[in-house]
Each structure stands twice: as structure tokens, then as C-alpha cells.
Design goal:
318 residues; mainly alpha; MetI-like fold; 2 domains; two-stranded antiparallel sheet; 2 strands; 80% helix; 1% strand; globular; cell membrane; transmembrane; membrane; MetI-like
Amino acid sequence: MVRGSAHTAEECHAAPRRRGARLSHYVPYLLLIPAAAFVLLVLGYPMLRQFVMSFQEFGLAQQFGQPAKFVGLENYISILTDAYFWTVLVKSLLFCAWTAGLTMILAIGFSLLMRSAHPSIRTLMNIVLVVVWAMPLIASLTVWQWLVDPNYGLVNFLLSSLGLKQFEGFSWLASSPWTFYLVASAVIIWASIPLATISIYAALTQVDNSLIEAAQIDGADYWKRFHHVIFPAISPVVSLLSVLQIIWDLKVFTHIYVLQQSGGISSQTNLLGTYVYQVGISQGDYGSASAVAMVILLVTLVITGKYIRMLFKQGGQL
């Protein structure tokens, strides 16, 4: 009788523990519900609305209350058969590859320099990077406009002082699309380097110095140590930053738009971001602009698809 009572008491204590274990299993998901609901509300609804508008004839009249007409794939067909759209798309992809690639190369170089620098120099570099990163975008664009001003810009003054008289009064933003893109890429890279550099440097601080010393003892030079020891350790961070940089640079808008207002030929210097703005806001064709935006989303997913699949695989292993 005593043994039966003891067994019953153990079962009574075990039942709450099992219920507590089951509840603790669902606690992380319950905690994620508010954040997930907020993201769906803030990002999901606008994207869904944009997707629906891409199949509608949605212009200024619909902004004033007239019902939108469903036109099926007409907006997509109109865009995909437009030679100008494909020109803008190719320019955007090349521009993105140039800016994102050069940003990551320079960021890795600066982070390695910070790792090898004296602590006081490293602190100074961190301060400079934070100041550059924190500078308001419009303020930095104003400074760049002053630098490349045709008559009073520092760039033309220095080049003319070196004997290059063809740069006297030269307009970097209006002479040709290529000089415009050169200035625009410099502005974007300059603004993107700080965050990438600081993030990669943080990853470098986690690299095991004993592995680097072992490779050095084995006779590996600096580039071999970087290729076989350092870069594999920081590659997850570099991959993530590369994907984010591609996404940011592919849909860049403010830099291009502001520089276009300073003399750029918008029809020849449009990228995807300004093209969507031109179609939607300037021309009032929100249906076609939504279709362009969905195409941009699809292109972005295709470009970053490999990394996204890798994230899902890593998530499934956790």
C-alpha cells in the first residue's frame, strides 16, 4: 500500500513537469507573435497592396476615389516589352556589381588595416568611420556637389592645377552618363564603407590568433594566411554584408535623384529606383510602377537566392 502511494505521488509530480516542458517548448513561438504581427502589418500589407496594384490600372483618378480596373498582366507586358526598361535594368545591375563589389573589397582592406594598426590609430579610424556613417545623407550629398562643382569644385581645381586644363569648368554630373555614375558610385561607396568596415573588423577580432601564428610558423605568407585562415573565419559576415549591400545598391534612389537635380540627365542616368519614382510619381502610373517594383523584388531574390537558401539550411540545423 505504501509503495502504491509513493508511485502515485511520483506520477502526480511528473505530470506538471511534463506540462511545463510542453509549455516551455511553445514559449519562444509565443514571444515571436507580437514581432511577427508587427512585421506583417508594416511590411506585409504594403507589399500585398503593391502586388495587387501591379495587376490594376491605377493612376491619379484612382487616388481620388475612382475604382481601379483590373488589367491582368498588361502592366508587366508593357514594362517587359519596353526597351528603356531593359536598358535601365542592365545599367542598374552593372552599377550594383561595381559599387557593392568595390565597397566590400575596400571594407575588408580597411578592417585588416585596423586590426594591424596601433590602438590609438584604430580608435581614430573608428571615430572617423562612425562620423562618416552618422552624417545625414543630404548633407553628405551637398558636400559632394560642392566637390564636383564645374566652376568652384575642389576636384576640378586639383586636376587643373596638375596641368589637365580640360577639367576647367568640367561638369561631372552633366557631361556624360559615365562621369555621372562615377560620382554617384563614389558617393554610395563612401557612405557604405563605414558600416561594412566596422562589422568586418568585429568579425576579425574573433579570429583565433593561434591559428594565424601556426600558419605563419608553417611558412605561409600574409596572403596565404588571409586566404586559408582569416577569410574563412569572417566569410559568414562578409556574405551577409554582401547580400545586404547588393539589395541596398540595387534599389538606390536618394543619391541618384539628388545628383540628377544638380545637372544630371535623368533620362540617361536613371537606375531602377529613380525609374520607379519617375513612372509612379512623375507620370502618375502607380500600376506600372508597382509592376516595376515587383520585378525589382524578383531580380533581388534571384541574385540573393543562393545566400537565402544557405540561411534556411543553417536555420534547419539549429
